[in-house]
Hints:
Structural class of chain B: mainly alpha
Shape of chain B: flat
Oligomer: heterodimer
Number of strands of chain B: 2
Order of helices and strands of chain A: HEEHHEHHHHEHEHEHEHEEHHHHE
Largest sheet of chain B: 2 strands, antiparallel
Strand order of the largest sheet of chain B: 1-2
Number of helices of chain B: 10
Helix content of chain A: 40-55%
Mean pLDDT of chain A: 84
Radius of gyration of chain B: 20 Å
Low-confidence stretches of chain A: 403-407, 416-420
Helix content of chain B: 55-70%
Number of helices of chain A: 15
Strand content of chain B: under 5%
Amino acid sequence: MPAVLGAFAGRPSVGEVMCVSTCNRVEVVATPPPGAQVDLDRVAEEIVAALEGFATPGSGPVLRPHLYRKVGKDAVQHLFRVASSLDSLVVGEPQILGQVKQAFEAAQAAGTVGPGLQRIVGRALQTAKRVRSETSIGEGQVSIASVAVDLARQIFGELKGHRALLVGAGEMALGAAQLVVRAGARLDVINRSPERAQALARELGAGVRAWDELPSAIVDTDVVISSTSAPGFVLTHDIVSRAVKLRKGRTLFFIDIAVPRDIEPSVEALNNVFLYDVDDLEGVVRETFREREGEAKRAEQLVAEEMSSFDAWVDTQSVVPTVVALRAKARATLMAELERSFAGKLKHLGQPERAALEVMVDAAVNKLLHAPVARLKRAAGDPRGEQMAQIVRELFELPDVTVVSDASGAAGGARERGGP
Amino acid sequence: MTASAVAWAGFWAGAAGYLAATVLFFWQISRGLPPRLVRLGPVFIGAGALSHAVFITLASLVANICPVRSVNFALSVGALATAFGYLVARLRWRIDAIGAFVAPIGLTFLIASRLANLGAVDAELPPFFLALHVGVNLIGDALFLLACTTAVLYLVVEKRLKEKKLGGVLGRLPSLDVLDQAEHRFLLFGFPLLTLGIITGTAWAYRLEAGHAGEVLRAAFAYLTWAVFAGVLLLRAAAGWRGRRAALGTITGFFFAVLVLVVYLVRPPAGPVLSCSSSLAFPTAPRPSRCASGSPSRPTRCPPCSAPSPAGPRSAR
């Protein structure tokens, strides 16, 4: 990453730069060099050119149609949306916030960020945290496996110390079994083919049970994940009913991910038995997506609020040089007079008294200039603000200052559909 | 600051703590709250319970009466025991949501004990015997109350899981097994206390040669409560009656326990009503004692706490 960032930062029009790279997204966020009067489109163009430089020789024209670029406020808003997981395929997924943080830290380590990006990325992370805490965009599970494990937690609390059984070797069941193991449950695998069972057990760090032990295996198990290709029921009402009696009422949770079903639906009527099939789990996933869509609208409003607050801050930056010069001149004038007095009538004063007088001068400057500075900042961003700044510069004979905003970014990137 | 003023401060602080916890828990369960706010619920209950304890202690000192001798105080102590039982139990199980029951119960009993005039406990019994009987019954009932609320929540969670109504409130409630375990433990700890309460109650009734219809009914409900809880515990151990069945049994047992209390509270007065409960049990300015009927009566000493009380104890058992 440092080499990549160095390549971007080496471009003459690029000042600060960071690169967000995930499994399906590569985005470069950059600002022009401080104080330089550079067209932001030119910065974006240079980034795209640099990206093409990383591509396989000759593939430039192929790469370009897949790239997109955003400039100025659009770029800032895009970064806010990315960090808030509003630009992810699975809206609300939590990883992207960490990935943006990591990208920023990598750029900091490479020395390619300054106050401009620090401010923009800081606001993006703040926006993302606000979206997470003020909306339910991250709530619920978005995969069948995670819904199944979530349900197991709702039934058993912590899964540590509980036993799970994987019946069959369907892909989705495998995902659920992996999550169950990760949650701390002890897993056994049962399969018609002992070789396949052994292989799966090795992969999952699980134990193996023989196929004909299935009825007794569910007596010792709390969570059964079933996904065989059997044409009929593998676990019938009778088998489960006998197991429930032997379990002395301990709760039993069946996750049937097989099509056609492995577990006879009537077992659901048994006391302390819970059965969820793939349709039930898919229903939960669909509901989560539907709820997240609603929350995404609220999240977009929060992003818009943060953008408007950021815009207001950017606008105040146009008068900052005038304000700084005004304060400096006022302080310098008063301090010069004070120094003259220290050399004359006030030369009898000791160091503590002199320091106290200097503090008093600073306070007086701040109080005196508070109202005009506040008015200048309020008017910033519209033509009246620039007019007022010009008048202040003329009245106080301040040097002409170049107004450069470091807070407008240019982003270029490429993203595939299907991930953060 | 006088003890009376501190007691009042404790009363209002307790009420405020319970009220804040009630609002917070209901908001959390119905709409959801950020985790940092959710954590405040038990903190508010803890603060409420602590203030409640300060109130009971100081108010009983000011009124010069043992809390177990005043029905008002006794109910207040019962609610306090429920709150403390909850706070201790949540150190072991993730059952914070039960606070949605505990906080309003604490608030209701704290205020009701101030407003209602429920009479005094029988004065003819030896102090130790009285304290033992009332104490074990109060703590036992507090544990059964917790078991019952846990059982209710169990049935809610179980119904939603069976009907596959996931999301929403379900994610904000404790897990099914945790509720089942907690309910069992509450029963297990409460049952010996109930047994002791029944033994002392039977001895008490025998001593007083009680034969009033209300007392017979109360004894019958108490034995029924004991039998139901014993059945729930026995069937769980022997026949695996867990979950839904155990929850229904617990709720039934608690229903009979409530009947015992109701029959006790609506008992007919057997003589001049003793008012050394609410009027003297709380830090109010001294005033002439009155019977519940309103007729003034000459204060006497209220044994065994030597609190001044009108003559003629009401038959409390």
